[in-house]
Amino acid sequence: MNNLGVLLKYELKKLIVNKVTILSLIVGAGFLFGITMAQYLLISPNDKYIAKRDSVLDGRPFDEMLIKEVTETAVEFDRLDQIPADNPCYQIASYMIRLLGTYMSVDGITGAYSLQELTEGKVYQTRIDMIEYFLEYFCLSDAEKDYWYQEENKVEKPFIWCANHGPWAMRSSFALTTVMSIMMIGICTAGIFASEYGYRTQDLILCSKEGKGTVIIAKLLGGEIFSILVGTILLLSAQLPHLIFNGVHGLGAPCQIVVPFTSYPFTALQLLGACTLLYLLSALLTGAISMILSCTLKNGAVASGVICIVVMMDMFLSIPAEFRVAAQIRYLTPVQVLNSSSITDPRLLRIGNLFLTSYQTAGVVYFSLAALLCLGNVYICKRKFSCSGKEIKE
After folding, report:
1. What's the pTM?
2. Which residues of 49-84 are buried (b: 16+ CB within 10 A; e: fewer)?
């Protein structure tokens, strides 16, 4: 066990002090931090008091009285989207535009309301109509629909309004951060095993006292720990500006204020917590994939290139929802499951009487695949190193 600790420290040191790693982390973290800061520093002067403006209506029920107050304010400016950014109703108007606008733009759904006709019942019914539309669109079975109806009943109404700018921005940043994290981990960990072949040191590992077991395990543990470390650094770089400008404001709001068409009975903080856990598990999986490619391809540049190409393809590949199984599997990739759409994937995985949501399914799949790939890596390394040793002996 002591030998494993020493070897693990050595592997981590090799990864962390590598010039390519340091440069990649500085560039990646700096890019995410800079692009997020720009959202706040480059906004118009009227928006620079976002937190103060948005907190005016916090804590009020999103009911008939508040909706009427917003629509009456909007009438003064003709339309909801003409409310000035310095008006306390601006954030609620933006939320209603997202909700009602999606409702009006979906084929087969009609019933747009004028501002004078908007009521609490119509606004909430619009949301329910959209949820039912998505349940049909994603080809859910009756049992799956019943599951979401039960979850919807757990969501307290009327919602307690809380400014959604901070939580919404934090959730939106996961999409780009995930892409950056996968590419960065792929680039930095692809040489863990490939470098042994490049420097022709794989036979030294075979001949060493800890060669067939402890060294390989140390490399795998080092790669996975490093993957989590890289993922954490990039995530903090992207989220820190949001915390600086918004603090924890709005994290206690119902997640429906951030993601209108979901039936999760969560708060915004719980939703972000689920996204963070999935993000870190995706970092583990990426590390495992990168290392097994490193071992099998024996070339770090090729291994990292494969990962980057797959990520780019994943960003643009689309499978129609009618192909239920293929579309559901495709949506479980980190880039897709952590996207920033107005609805989370409602498709469920049924195991007997148990239903797993897309978040739960993705978490189980990522962890299980990472473990299996690491075990497979141990087996492959032992065979490859053993074969190399036999060739030299001969």
Report:
1. 0.87
2. ebeebbeebbebebbeebbeebbebbeeeeebeebe
